[in-house]
Amino acid sequence: MRSSFLQVLALATIACAAPSSRSTHVLHEKRAAEPVGWASRRLESHRVLPIRVGLKQSNMDQLEDMLNSVAHPESESYGQHWTPEKVADFFAPSDNTVEAIKDWLMSSGFTADRVRVSPGKGWIEVNATVAEAEDLLNTEYHVYTHPSGHEQIGCDSYHVPKHIQEHVDLIKPTVHFNHRLPTYPMGNKREYHLGQPSSVNGPKTLDTKIEVEPTMSNCDQFITPDCLRALYNIDYTPIVPQKNSYGIVEFTPQAYVADDLDLFFRNFSSRQIGQRPTLVSIDGGFVQTTNQSFDLNGESNLDLQYAMALVGKRQPITLLQAGDLPQGASFDNWLDAVDKSFCTFEGGDDPTQDGIYPDNLEGGYNGTASCGIVKPPHVVSISYGQDEWTVTPAYANRQCAEYAKLGLLGTTVLYSSGDDGVAGGGGVCLTNGQPDVNGTQFAPSFPVTCPYVTAVGATQINPGSTTDDPEGACEQVIYSGGGFSNIFPMPKYQAKKVNHFLKNHPPPYSAAQYNNTGNVRAYPDLSANGANYVIAIDGGFNLVFGTSASSPVVGAMITLINDARIAIGRGPLGFINPAIYSDLFSWAFNDIKSGGNQGCGTPGFNATEGWDPVTGMGTPDLSLLLPLFLTLP
């Protein structure tokens, strides 16, 4: 994006409230939730905006079937993952779609030299004044200002001509409004975006240093790598680590502390002292050391200490560090780096949600946006999330499709399911779909509700129990996020298991509390321990809790399975959900039958026999999963 547009966006936030609708225009998107506590004013008509039209991709109706064809264990083409070129070609917008949007823009007064089509044909960009944009989209643009001084681009609604609606996924900047204020005071910096680390969606801690020596006899109080190995029968040494890859995504300013890694390794994995993850800098991402605290180091320290210890010294870990210090990054930014066709450089990102690069803020990253700079790792773990109500269905579906494409390429994408049970981040629930501190409607998370990622919930060793005893759903400090999406339909792979739950263990809640239609995406998919993790931080040891811990642990186990498959000439697992929900694999999980995920003034759902919306299919047993996956081609 040109710097002049960044200056505009740094100064102003846009919102659209539709005036009288044209006869040829129809509503295309409406803001998911109204901003609370923000004042608004009309944006000056001469300001210039970078309007981006996300074009409707081809063959989206075949996306689930194509993914199942390479991911379902009963498919004849299991494991036959696609090339990036095949993915890009198969889903590229049609020439008719490109021409329809170009004709619309030029008939609206934009000359051909102002209209740019991205190389992958996924986006069309035109630089428009506010007056031109308002006329084009039959809307009004406003600047929203928060008492803190932050300004935000948002949009109430916008319209497009009826005859071109079928060619449009979404248009930016329009309705996507970032409600979260920064939790990291850095002075005169741009507001932090949804999905970035904070004390709300990071791991929780009791904030007391550990004085007791952790041993295998007290794993119910202190989880260490050895406890996890015992719980999930993790006993495998990588054979071909140079052919395998495991990526951990972190968002600046969250960063690991090298001395803390060594302190952890000195106590729990001595052969790894001095070992570091391989850094891939996305949009200026770096391991910042200027500001250190639990909120800034807890997540990254946790993810890397346990991921690295469980895969062992031989297997490198890739750190996908996204965003510079002034601006940060979002989920779309890391997707840009592993999928060139989705890239910022081609107009794919939203200034209200995503980091926009180059960054002209002081100390910002001035290089070219990180577009397709790294091959997707075989496994990627992300311990961050946002509330589903904060995104529009169009935005959510556009991003979700990218996770499906990564699955087609052979990548397993894991997201932690959240730590507030059936509530949203910070325990906030909904009233009529809007956030309300006194709300009683459940608030699912995102991107974890995308049916093309693997959602990881949290369990615990119950007090007084051992690693030989059944675990329960996590009810210490945090509650495993789980429930039912308000956006995504139920994928085929989970229909049998979820319908069994709904029929045999119907939740005692009405449609006023959750989406009880029985035809929507349910989560989580599986779980792992999320309580009492011993991590090294600030030169000592703390206990932390969260699905933030569960996701990298499952990622380590999938990485070990991938190594075993690659060692015998087979490929990585890629998208694992169709397999783990199949009858062939269901017995390789430890079924969790106790505990719940309270929130929104209710006990939430209950963990019970089979799949449930607290712990999914249960916790993985590597000694059972490994031979099963080795039988697949």
Automatic annotation (TrEMBL):
Report the superkingdom from the record.
Eukaryota
Instruction: Please report the name of this protein according to its UniProt entry.
Output: Subtilisin-like protein
Q: What organism is listed for this UniProt entry?
A: Artomyces pyxidatus
* Lineage start: Eukaryota, Fungi, Dikarya, Basidiomycota, Agaricomycotina
